[in-house]
Write a structure and sequence with these properties.
The structure is a single chain. By secondary structure, the chain is mainly β. Strands 1-2-7-4 form a 4-stranded antiparallel sheet, with no helix packed on it. A 3-stranded antiparallel sheet has the order 3-6-5, with no helix packed on it. The chain is elongated.
Length: 86
């Protein structure tokens, strides 16, 4: 106990997963805190389509090119929302 754990996985969303409202594309990711765990840190990186204009991200993210990086704590359930226009 007391060690460090790192889990990494990558996946690509099919186009049907992204909600489209007019010219605004929206992606929501819901992260659930698991019972018995503390406020584990979680890093989520989301790659926007090339040339997309970021309209909003909740919570705030750091950005490098088309990649958004969210550093959150799972003390409670969290939702990440990204909105962009193509």
């Amino acid at each position: 106990w007391g060690g460090r754990e790192v889990v990494t996985f990558r996946y690509q969303l099919p186009p049907t997963v992204v909600a489209v409202d007019g010219a605004v594309h929206r992606y929501r990711l819901y992260l659930q805190k698991q019972p018995g765990t503390g406020g584990r840190p979680v890093r989520v990186a989301i790659q926007l389509p090339a040339g997309a204009d970021l309209l909003n991200s909740t919570p705030a993210a750091s950005r490098s090119g088309d990649e958004l990086v969210f550093d959150v704590s799972l003390r409670t359930d969290r939702e990440i929302v990204v909105e962009w226009s193509p």
